[in-house]
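Objective 1b. Sequence-to-structure analysis of Transmembrane protein.
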Amino acid sequence: MWVTATGAFLFIIGLLYMAWEALGRRRLSEPPQAPRANPEQTLEPRGQGLRFLSPIRNWLGVALMVIGGALLLFGMR
């Protein structure tokens, strides 16, 4: 029972950590400014790409999710 609860806890913490890393290090919008020539304004920063999904940057979250998933599988037996 405790193995399953610990696995679920670690998995959720890993998921939240990865979300925090993806959103926490950058601003999502710029302060209001005069209208620009480009009407397409977005909340995504310029040049973001998919680097924030890198397992190298999120290795701790991936490790927590893997350990939590393994404990969940082990606890179900």
